[in-house]
Amino acid sequence: MLLVVPFALIAAVTTVDVLAPPDVHLGPFLVAAPALAASFAGPRMTAFVGAVAVLAQSVVAVARTSLTDLNHTYQIIALVLISVIVTFFAHLRERGESRVARLRTIAHAAQSVVLRPLPHRAGPLHIASVYLAAEEEAQMGGDLYAAARTASGTRLLIGDARGKGLDAISEASLVLGAFRVTARREQELPELVVHLEEGVGSVEEPQGAPGAEPGADGAADGTDEAFVTALVLDIPDREPVVRLVNCGHPPPLLLRQGRVIPLDTAEARPPLGLADVVTADATVATFPFDVGDVLLLYTDGVVEARDDSRAFYPLAERLTAWARDDPPTLLDRLRADLRSYAGGHLGDDAALVAVERLAPGRGGP
Question: Hey, which end of the chain has fewer CB within 10 Å, N or C?
Answer without folding.
Answer: N
